[in-house]
From TrEMBL:
This is CopC domain-containing protein. Pfam families: CopC (PF04234). Keywords: Copper, Signal. GO terms for molecular function: copper ion binding. Residues 1-17 form the signal peptide. It comes from Novosphingobium sediminicola. One of its GO terms (biological process) is response to copper ion. Residues 20-119 form the CopC domain. One of its GO terms (cellular component) is periplasmic space. InterPro entries: CopC_dom (IPR007348), Cu-Rt/internalin_Ig-like (IPR014755), Ig_E-set (IPR014756).
Length: 121
């Protein structure tokens, strides 16, 4: 009886990592003022065509219950190194609570999304 022994071949493939938010300015849960720019930093370069940011006012002084209001005039760009989304606002955010909803994809189409909140005074 003969046995045929086949060598096992390990094929190395690159790890498919999903872009991850590494830091943000303003930071999650922060209380700040005079916000005219929001910067989201990621673990790897993102594809500008498949990435974006929405800034929503979710709370306003004196109005406990109102629907989120999308801020108009937000311009989003990718930093020169490709690892940050920068949302530039037409004017400073007024006093209130805000949610920043983001979505990104890297060059290999790995997608991620999330949100962060902060307060302004």
């Amino acid at each position: 009886m003969r046995f045929l022994i086949l060598p096992l071949i390990a094929i190395a493939t690159p790890a498919m990592a999903t872009p991850a938010l590494t830091s943000a300015t303003p930071a999650e849960g922060s209380d700040t003022a005079n916000i005219t720019r929001i910067t989201l930093n990621f673990s790897e370069a993102v594809d500008p065509a498949a990435s974006g940011v929405d800034v929503m006012m979710t709370g306003m002084p004196g109005m406990d219950h109102h629907d989120p209001m999308k801020m108009a005039g937000v311009k989003v760009a990718v930093s020169p190194d490709g690892r940050s989304l920068v949302a530039t606002l037409a004017r400073p955010l007024s006093e209130g609570t805000y949610a920043v909803r983001w979505h990104v994809a890297d060059k290999s189409a790995q997608k991620a999304s999330g949100a962060l909140t902060f307060n302004t005074h």
